[in-house]
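pasting for ref
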Amino acid sequence: MRPLLIVALMGVLALTAHAGGGGGGDDPTEKLENVHDLTPDNFEKVVNGAKHVLVEFYAPWCGHCKRMVPEYKKLGELVSSDPKLKNRVVVAKVNADAHRSLGDRFDVRGFPTIKFFPAGKAPSKETMQDYNQARTATAFLEFLKEKMAADKGFARVEALDALAKEFVSAADDAKAKVIADTEAAVAELEGEAKDNGALYVSIMKKAVEKGAEYLTKEKARLEKMLSGGSVNAAKVDEMSRKSSVLGAFGDDDDE
């Protein structure tokens, strides 16, 4: 017998034992403002790598899930009220008792199970992370802020960030030298850093060709496409890396 089926049967027994004995908490299936309800039909659209997503896998009969409803509701409100969080984080929940295919897909073995799906990666068992901290709105929020703080480092090469800033401030006739210096620096890199470094050079050359406005317009274009949920999973990583590197040319350091 599958683990989720065993848990489900335990829940039925618990409901039977407490029939007529009071609610013991809120209803996890309740529609919460600022919290997405996921199903197999919309999961890929919401959890698509465009933003960080925190997902609660719950069962309606689970006592711990019922008691967590107010905290999760509060988390949704906190994220929605913070512009930076709202643009980069999604709070979601899924009835994994009703939609067991999703629970099975992500190795859910009990309720509630909280999973974190990072931005820049297509959802999978390899890229998701288990959330094992306190089940309070405050703890959830701190966890998400820590993940956001780490975003700046995604696909960025510290040694090239200074050259990106130098490129932006350089006069038009001096930009070619900055590009040459960047190419020389990239040549010294290896592996993933070298691949990411190539993006710095490519972006600089595009900015010379299309004008300085390319930097902000291209970043806005990529973020809009990623947020739209229509990007092929295979392209999410590539587009997210480019968007992150473009941040080195803008005001990301001031956030």
